[in-house]
Amino acid sequence: MKTQMSEAARQKANEYQRNWKRKNPDKVRQHTVNYWERKANEPEAIETQVYSLHNQGKSLREIGLKIGISHMKVKRILQNIT
Question: Quick one: DSSP state of residue 35?
């Protein structure tokens, strides 16, 4: 169940975030670099995990549950081997 913030609270939160970003540009820049580095390596890491678990004889659903992706995504990754 999601809780909704009032419009005034949302505006205050956004204002706080904008001010924090203005005061900490180096932290924002470093966070951005770290985020995109993780994103760039993410598909390779997932594919490696899928291949490893598949070679261990795990089912598509077991692999998906373990990694946190759908069994259909696992199937597509394995089909791209060929």
Answer: H
Which residue pairs from 68-77 have beta carbons closer than 8 angstroms and sit at least 24 positions apart in sequence?
Answer: 74/50, 77/46, 77/47, 77/50, 77/51
Q: What is the pTM of this model?
A: 0.51
Give the sign of the dihedral formed by CA 35, CA 32, CA 24, CA 19.
negative
pLDDT tens across the length of the chain (82 residues): 567 899 999 999 999 999 999 999 999 999 999 988 888 877 788 899 999 999 999 999 999 999 889 999 999 999 987 5
